[in-house]
Amino acid sequence: MNQSKIAIILILAGVLLAGCVSKQPITLNGAGATFPYPLISKWSSEYNKIKPNIQINYQSVGSGAGIKQITARTVDFGASDAPLTEQEYANVSGILQIPESIGAVVVAYNLPGIQKGVKLSGDVTADIFLGKITKWNDPKIVSLNPGIQFPSKDIIVAHRSDGSGTTFVFTDYLSAISPDWKSKAGKGKSVNWPVGLGGKGNEGVAGLLTQNPYSIGYIELAYAKLQNISYAYIKNKAGNFIEPTLETTASAA
């Protein structure tokens, strides 16, 4: 399981403070990562109950698009799973980067008849997304999962098509665990995917997973839970397979 600190970028923090004492209607507009959208949406709704005169609108458009919008000053705040690079930060003046939340990127799958308990290692995951492992009953997958009967079906890889902080988190992990992945694809908010179908946002990848049996992809844990999508237990450095939960995410923070 991968951990990610979400950096939320604020350029009008003073407006938030003004809202605490003013009764005038205030609207704050934000855009960025799909990763924290469920959390930001909940926060916005709850805050509006306390401060009815303050409306917070957040567009779940992806980290790359959010960075572009905050740079162009078309929104009041942006959110990105990946911190701004030095060049991106140099392009924007007068902003703050605030670590806002921590979440988990999970390797999610759609395997008819196998709802829970699939175990994967980092190198096997990398080989799947490289297109080197193409069948669910590949010996490398089977050896990690004694007792599970995998079908002889092609693996359908799902990945992000937009500039994505979630992609940065996932590819950073794959680059750290697999020299082959690092040399062929590398890490970033966008990479040249060797194989697979592209979906926009965590929502898009989740949609590809639910629509395509025998698929595998990467999404934020909340999206998997909200849409009842199965996700793998990933082998850690100690050799243990960790189930992604709120508790294991918090303990890894």
Task: Give a concise summary.
By secondary structure, the chain is of the alpha/beta class. The protein has helices at residues 13-19, 37-50, 63-71, 86-90, 122-130, 139-144, 165-177, 179-184, 201-211, 221-226, 246-252, and strands at residues 2-10, 26-32, 54-60, 77-80, 96-110, 119-120, 156-160, 197-199, 215-220, 230-231, 233-235, 241-242.
Oligomer category: single chain
Tell me the series of helices and strands, N- to C-terminal: EHEHEHEHEEHHEHHEHEHEEEH
CATH superfamily of the largest domain: Periplasmic binding protein-like II
Report Rg.
19 Å
Low-confidence stretches: 3-20
Q: Strand percentage, roughly?
A: 25-35%
Mean pLDDT: 89
Number of strands: 12
Q: Cα distance, first to last residue? A: 12 Å
Describe the sheet with the most strands. Answer: 9 strands, mixed
CATH architecture designation of the largest domain: 3-Layer(aba) Sandwich
What is the third-level CATH name, the topology of the largest domain? D-Maltodextrin-Binding Protein, domain 2
How many distinct helices?
11
Helix content: 25-40%
Shape: globular
The domain count comes to: 2
Alpha-beta classification: alpha/beta
CATH class descriptor name of the largest domain: Alpha Beta
Give a written overview of the molecule:
The N and C termini lie close together (12 Å). The strands form 2 sheets. Strands 1, 2, 3, 4, 5, 7, 8, 9 and 10 form a 9-stranded mixed β-sheet that branches. The chain has 2 domains: 2-102, D-Maltodextrin-Binding Protein, domain 2, CATH 3.40.190; 104-252, Periplasmic binding protein-like II (D-Maltodextrin-Binding Protein, domain 2, 3-Layer(aba) Sandwich), CATH 3.40.190.10. The protein contains 11 helices and 12 strands. It has 253 residues and is an alpha/beta fold.
